[in-house]
Design goal:
The complex is a heterotrimer. By secondary structure, chain A is mainly α. Chain A is built from 12 helices and no strands. The chains are: A mainly alpha, B mainly alpha, C alpha/beta.
Chain lengths: ~300, ~325, ~300
């Protein structure tokens, strides 16, 4: 039953040593794994910055890709068309996605009966998991076949990608709005719709901005939906969404396949721009998220 | 806050109680329409994709899945077999590599690391998830590829060349092995961040109970944390697998786009998603287009099943643990 | 349903409110008073001071805990009772800002020395927590967890049965060992946790308010168990319920809160003696005030 008066040796034994070694191995392995992940990140981002830095100058943003036949001095070249194109495509996608996502979140969080809300949320979660390439094919067969590619069709595909993300973020923030606020408004005689739009929704703006920013950042880097909807673009800067427009991801994708080192460097440069956009967007989103959560929890 | 002045005071106002306000009705209908878009889109996507794959589905039937060909017989024969093989090998290979690493990272961030390290490392791992696939693909072609042909490949072939998977020396940087590595990098942040949430959710009283019995930290993890989080880990792995299966861009950049089936990882190959992406410059015949869409149908079916399974597991787990 | 210890008669139900000015000596358990048992120290605590960061939760605690007795730690909320008991099995190690001054000797071994691995300490000094915390496993697997880790795999079935018998749970669960531990009632879960603790054959069992989450009947069973277990184990129990201390404990340590120089509140040991003495002839006025209900 109880042990004899133990000495310090009794706290150590052969088995204890083995267990401690196993524990140390596991802890060491976990640390190595984390370092590995961070290491890969550093290597990838490092490569992008190191190899793309040289391509980034004013021309990069103000000139369009120049055809180089291999003879004579190389003309100045840039990705202005891709940048403008990305801005237009993403902007349109946000315009399409934002209202749908916010209205969806309002319905699911404020108005829907519980069971229906669960089913519809499940549908969005499943939609979220559909691969981007399948979405691209869907839009391709839905509106492109027989009609031609267009930037707005790419926006449509990206919007499908963005809606679940923005809707979820909005829902999370709506849920944080205290019930007492809704009740106070209703008690004053305001109708439900007015309560929702004038009282609840403004509180959720932070979350909406967060979700929209993150979704935009993600969409800006997506290539697959663009392959079948906005890939046959010209080198000139275009502004018409009814035509296929250039985009940064497509530029990187096509440049990577070529054997031209200057083009490669430009691809790295474009990748650096993309990562920069994503980084800035994440920071903005995080700042907004913290601020809105803090506000809702009462610490002004 | 102004009250709607349309409601005048007096007995007439009280009589409005039974009727639905137009504003409420409009809001309800508009938001309902938006919320239904998810279901509608799912149905629409499924229908459209199957409809446009139909010519190929009719012609090849399920034999499509067992035919290894693409554009053979003068562009009349298409089959998905080699791509299904490629998808299986690359995705499962990536999952195999990513699972222990992701679990280890999640453990590191929840059990081992002091707070300040956590707050630095965690965002960095999430940043890994934010790298666009085209950028990873670019890195894969221009950095990883040469590394595989120059250093890693010969090393693996030298030591493990007797294994069928490493039986040749990689001559091009674009092969299945590169695809597996790239996919691993993509899966790790997803799985590890889900697992991190799971591990944080294990009640500390359970861990205290194990500690008080004289368990080492690893024994607490193995005996209490993992079993508790078991279902959630499964869901995370399914989601990670789904991600790997659906990845088109980065894979098509590094996998070599070959219709062959080998056991050798250092040879090029192709996956379902990557083959679809590779055809973006235009398919020549209607049959080719339909076959392409057929590939998308296979991908869609798989991703719907995998996602549904993962979501249902997550919902069931959330319900069960609330019981306590 | 087991009988209550014979000392608790129907006229003095355990859950009665209103404190007597001096407790009826017949309430103090059926065992002979601790003064007649040999006092063999298991723990020697010397000037223990415990800090969370810079705040002292305990100050200068010194006393001895004796073998095969039940020692109760009582006192008002915030006096450091839980902190103290968790020092005895190094459970406070998991709190990053925690540190101690002073010594805790376990049979002449300094428990807090760097060379001592807390994992080994916890095997010998087990703990039962306030809220029952069985693992999400079967009843059998809960009890088998400890022996498995220690490599005591021979006759695992026998060990599990023995532990469950000692925890007075065997008869109730012997036909459903494979069922989930969470299917048991609160009181049964707590006895399962005790069985789980017993399965690794500790010398000491620490109990941090083991019955505070349980109903009176389950509480009584736990108290019975303490009477049984103290024949073989040393038991230290923290309780906020004075009558419980009076019922089960041989020795009682009364902790209270003292305000330091800068107004910091820390826990201090006020008085430590045989339970009977603490409740009938306390030497310190603070003790008397507490046990007679004038404060706390």
């Amino acid at each position: 039953m109880s042990a004899q008066a133990p000495s310090a040796d009794l706290f150590r034994s052969e088995r204890m040593r083995r267990r401690r070694i196993v524990n140390a191995i596991v802890e060491g392995g976990a640390t190595i794994a984390a370092l590995l992940a961070v290491g890969v990140l550093v290597i990838v981002v490092g490569s992008v910055v190191k190899r793309g830095w040289g391509a980034i100058d004013v021309d990069f943003f103000t000139k369009t890709p120049a055809l180089y036949t291999g003879f004579g001095p190389r003309p100045e070249s840039g990705i202005e068309n891709a940048i403008i194109g990305t801005l237009i495509i993403i902007g349109l996608a946000l315009l399409m996605a934002l209202p749908v996502a916010v209205l969806t979140a309002i319905y699911l969080n404020e108005l829907a009966p519980r069971k229906l809300a669960n089913v519809l949320t499940l549908a969005f979660d499943v939609l979220n998991g559909i691969p981007a390439i399948v979405l691209g094919i869907f839009v391709f067969v839905f509106v492109v076949v027989g009609h031609g590619q267009a930037a707005w069709k790419a926006s449509f595909a990206l919007a499908i990608l963005m809606v679940p993300m923005i809707a979820r973020s909005t829902q999370e923030v709506l849920a944080l709005v205290p019930a007492s606020m809704r009740e106070a408004s209703l008690a004053l005689g305001a109708a439900k719709w007015r309560t929702t739009l004038s009282v609840v929704l403004p509180q959720a703006v932070g979350g909406i901005v967060t979700g929209a920013t993150l979704a935009t950042a993600r969409a800006a880097g997506e290539t697959a939906p663009l392959l079948f909807t906005s890939a046959l673009y010209s080198d000139a800067v275009g502004y018409d969404p009814r035509q296929p427009l250039a985009s940064i991801p497509m530029f990187i994708f096509t440049s990577a396949e070529q054997a031209d080192p200057v083009l490669h460097q430009q691809a790295w440069g474009a990748a650096a721009v993309l990562i920069g956009i994503i980084l800035v967007a994440s920071l903005i989103a995080r700042w907004f998220a913290d601020r809105s959560v803090r506000r809702l929890k009462g610490e002004r | 806050m102004a009250v709607a002045s349309r409601t005048s005071s007096g007995p007439g106002a009280l009589q409005r109680r039974g009727r639905i306000r137009p504003g409420d009705a409009v809001l309800y209908l508009v938001t309902l329409a938006a919320a239904l878009s998810g279901v509608v889109l799912l149905a629409l996507i499924t229908r459209e994709v199957i409809a446009d794959a139909w010519p190929a589905m009719q012609k090849f039937g399920l034999g499509f899945l067992t035919t290894q060909a693409w554009g053979d017989n003068n562009k009349t024969l298409f089959g998905a077999k080699s791509f299904i093989f490629g998808t299986a090998v690359t995705s499962l290979g990536a999952l195999l590599l990513a699972t222990p690493i992701s679990l280890a990272i999640a453990l590191f961030l929840t059990e081992l690391a002091p707070r300040w390290i956590r707050s630095v490392v965690a965002p960095l791992v999430e940043l890994l998830a934010a790298i666009p696939s085209v950028v990873l693909g670019l890195w894969g072609i221009l950095v990883l590829g040469p590394f595989i042909t120059g250093t890693l490949g010969p090393a693996l072939h030298g030591t493990f060349g007797w294994l069928p998977i490493f039986s040749s020396k990689p001559s091009v940087g674009s092969n299945m092995f590169a695809a597996i590595l790239i996919l691993t990098i993509m899966i790790i942040p997803i799985v590890s961040s889900i697992c991190r949430e799971l591990f944080l959710g294990v009640p500390s009283e359970l861990k205290d109970g194990a500690l008080a019995l004289g368990a080492t930290r690893w024994e607490v993890v193995r005996g209490v944390v993992f079993p508790y989080a078991r279902a959630g880990i499964a869901a995370a792995l399914i989601l990670g697998l789904g991600r790997a299966v659906g990845e088109a861009i980065a894979v098509t950049q590094v996998i070599g786009n070959n219709v062959a089936i080998h056991a050798d990882l250092f040879k090029p190959g192709d996956t379902l998603a990557s083959r679809i992406a590779g055809q973006y410059q235009g398919a020549d015949t209607a049959l080719q287009v339909a076959s392409l869409v057929y590939l998308a149908v296979i991908l869609l079916v798989f991703s719907l099943i995998a996602n549904l399974a993962a979501q249902l597991i997550v919902r069931r787990v959330a319900g069960r643990h609330q019981m306590r | 349903m087991t009988d209550y210890p014979s000392a608790i008669s129907v006229e003095h139900p355990p859950e009665r409110t209103g404190l007597p000015s001096a407790l009826d000596p017949s309430m103090l358990g059926a065992e002979p008073p601790a003064a007649t048992l040999a006092r063999d120290p298991v723990f020697t605590i010397e000037k223990l001071t415990a800090f969370y960061g810079n705040a002292a939760a305990l100050k200068d605690v010194s006393f001895e805990i004796y073998q095969r007795m039940v020692t109760a730690i009582i006192g008002p909320s915030g006096c450091g009772k839980s902190t103290f008991i968790r020092c005895l099995n190094r459970m406070n190690d998991v709190i990053p800002s925690f540190r101690t001054d002073g010594k805790i000797l376990y049979h002449d071994v300094d428990l807090q020395a760097r060379s001592i691995d807390p994992v080994g300490v916890r095997r010998r000094i087990g703990m039962v927590f306030q809220r029952p915390n069985p693992f999400p496993k079967s009843i059998y697997e809960n009890v088998a967890y400890g022996p498995r880790i220690l490599g005591l795999k021979e006759d695992l079935d026998g060990r599990v049965e023995q532990a469950l018998k000692r925890a007075a749970l065997w008869d109730e669960v012997k036909d459903r060992l494979k069922r989930s531990a969470w299917s048991l009632s609160g009181g049964q879960q707590q006895r399962l946790c005790i069985a789980r603790c017993l399965a690794v054959e500790p010398e000491v069992i620490l109990m941090d308010e083991p019955a505070s989450a349980l109903d009176p009947i389950a509480t009584a069973k736990i108290e019975d168990l303490m009477h049984e277990l103290k024949r073989d184990y040393t038991i230290v129990v923290v309780t906020h319920n004075m009558q419980q201390a009076a019922r089960v404990a041989d020795m009682t340590a009364f902790f209270s809160i003292s305000r330091g120089a800068e107004g910091h509140r820390s826990g201090v040991l006020v008085e430590y003696d045989a339970t009977k003495t603490i409740f009938t002839q306390p030497k310190d006025k603070r003790t008397e005030d507490y046990v007679t209900g004038r404060f706390g």
